[in-house]
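Input structure tokens:
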């Protein structure tokens, strides 16, 4: 039902669109930009809804305080066949498979958002919910890491799962579990899981130091395992190919893990790992720079970050990220919003970094761009998501008046198990629910769907999975940005200052 790529935080850079596509049409552009100033968005409400979404994606035995009440316990025997407890964690999207790599990336991004904007999340009254969302994932990772050199990386099978349309509570498909180990390495999934646990260890350091220490211990072991036994996880777990294929290899995840471990421990050996492997792992391009001093090596990393920011702002001479006529960053037809939400988060972080270090501007090929302009563009992407777009559709489910009512999601599209406990078979879901023209009986609140096409057009149909399927890693980066925007709005109301001029 879907094809997915391994997730990362860097957008693909594609050649600019032809000139006539830039100019479609100018009057529409002015209408969009002028009307957007009159729109008001409740970022606090968007933050609350985005965190609620993760409760809809929970697998396992649901807690007493479960707020997504249309969900019930599911997959309570995961890992039983293999003699390990793998109950819990998250379903990645509209299906019922637990894929370890995107789950880990999701937890890394959620944790990063809390690290950067925890104060704003707390002021919005959502800090407990944010920590609960992270801990639901990291608790599962602790279970899945059963030995220093063993990580269970998938539960369920995409092929059999996609053959059926069933609520997770009714699943009859395979729940076989797949692992990586010394003989079947998976440096990418091990590295990303290490990054997630290291980032989460920072989050829990103040509120739960014992748990923080446990997560850091697992993160360090996973990093050693991933680095010592190198290999792509999709070569060890063939079943993941076509869903989360390791397109870019495992080296970026090892660098990513080392950086998070450095941030969590402040131990120089992790930073040295990143610098020493910069060329060998593809971080740098020039063969002569493998002996360069650390300062210059860090500058090379910085130049890549600068290039990415400039590309998003359309400030490079050649490689810029395309945009729709309505102004949305556009990378590909299938689930484009995953790239938009990640870009918005990174632009926000970068803008904050420039402000914190008193840097007035970033030098791009086509001129300078300041932190306010970078943040303003990030905000424009968020506002587009919430409804400031040519079709006036909110791509965050449950937010606003007009949003996707037919999300491509098994559980949301079938009557809630709590209302109708009658068993729904594998093909029965297709026959009785998938093809219905009615709206989904359950609202997948807070889900960020795949989004519009390159012309800002969106067709809200259950079968249109390229546009109407939502994924956990779409929503995760939004949490931090929503918190930042809500905090600025609160400050603006109290200080009567323009939103963009706030820091």
């Amino acid at each position: 039902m879907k094809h997915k790529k391994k997730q990362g935080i860097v957008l693909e850079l594609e050649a600019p669109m032809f000139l006539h596509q830039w100019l479609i049409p100018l009057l529409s552009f002015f209408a969009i930009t002028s009307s957007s100033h009159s729109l008001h968005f409740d970022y606090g409400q968007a933050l609350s809804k985005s965190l609620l979404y993760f409760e809809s994606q929970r697998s396992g035995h649901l807690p007493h305080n479960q707020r997504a009440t249309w969900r019930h316990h599911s997959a309570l025997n995961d890992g039983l066949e293999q003699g390990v407890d793998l109950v819990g964690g998250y379903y990645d999207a509209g299906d019922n498979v637990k894929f370890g790599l995107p789950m880990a990336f999701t937890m890394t991004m959620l944790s990063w958002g809390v690290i950067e904007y925890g104060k704003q999340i707390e002021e919005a009254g959502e800090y407990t919910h944010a920590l609960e969302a992270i801990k639901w994932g990291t608790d599962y990772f602790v279970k899945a890491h059963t030995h220093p050199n063993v990580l269970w990386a998938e539960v369920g099978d995409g092929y059999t799962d996609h053959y059926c349309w069933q609520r997770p509570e009714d699943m009859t498909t395979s729940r076989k579990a797949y692992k990586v180990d010394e003989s079947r390495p998976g440096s990418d999934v091990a590295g990303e899981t290490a990054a997630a646990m290291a980032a989460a260890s920072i989050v829990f350091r103040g509120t739960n130091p014992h748990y923080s220490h446990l997560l850091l211990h697992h993160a360090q072991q996973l990093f050693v395992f991933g680095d010592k036994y190198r290999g792509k996880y999709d070569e060890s777990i063939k079943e993941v190919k076509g869903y989360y294929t390791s397109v870019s290899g495992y080296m970026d995840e090892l660098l990513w893990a080392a950086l998070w471990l450095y941030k969590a421990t402040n131990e120089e050996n992790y930073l040295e790992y990143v610098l020493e492997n910069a060329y060998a792992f593809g971080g740098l391009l020039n063969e002569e720079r493998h002996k360069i001093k650390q300062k210059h090596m860090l500058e090379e990393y910085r130049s890549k970050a600068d290039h990415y920011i400039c590309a998003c702002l359309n400030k490079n001479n050649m490689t810029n990220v395309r945009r729709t006529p309505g102004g949305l960053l556009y990378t590909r037809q299938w689930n484009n919003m995953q790239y938009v939400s990640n870009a918005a988060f990174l632009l926000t972080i970068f803008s904050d970094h420039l402000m914190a270090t008193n840097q007035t501007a970033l030098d791009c090929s086509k001129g300078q761009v300041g932190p306010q302009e970078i943040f303003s563009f990030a905000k424009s992407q968020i506002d587009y998501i919430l409804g400031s777009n040519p079709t006036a559709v909110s791509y965050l489910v449950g937010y606003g008046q007009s949003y996707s009512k037919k999300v491509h999601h098994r559980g949301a599209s079938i009557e809630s198990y709590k209302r109708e406990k009658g068993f729904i078979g594998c093909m029965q879901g297709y026959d009785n629910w998938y093809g219905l023209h009615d709206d989904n009986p359950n609202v997948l609140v807070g889900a960020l769907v795949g989004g519009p096409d390159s012309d800002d057009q969106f067709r809200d149909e259950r079968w249109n999975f390229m546009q109407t399927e939502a994924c956990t890693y779409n929503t995760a980066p939004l949490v931090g940005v929503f918190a930042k925007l809500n905090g600025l709005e609160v400050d603006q109301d109290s200080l009567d200052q323009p939103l963009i001029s706030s820091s």
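Confidence is low (pLDDT under 50) at residues 1-37, 285-292. DSSP finds 18 helices and seven strands in the chain.
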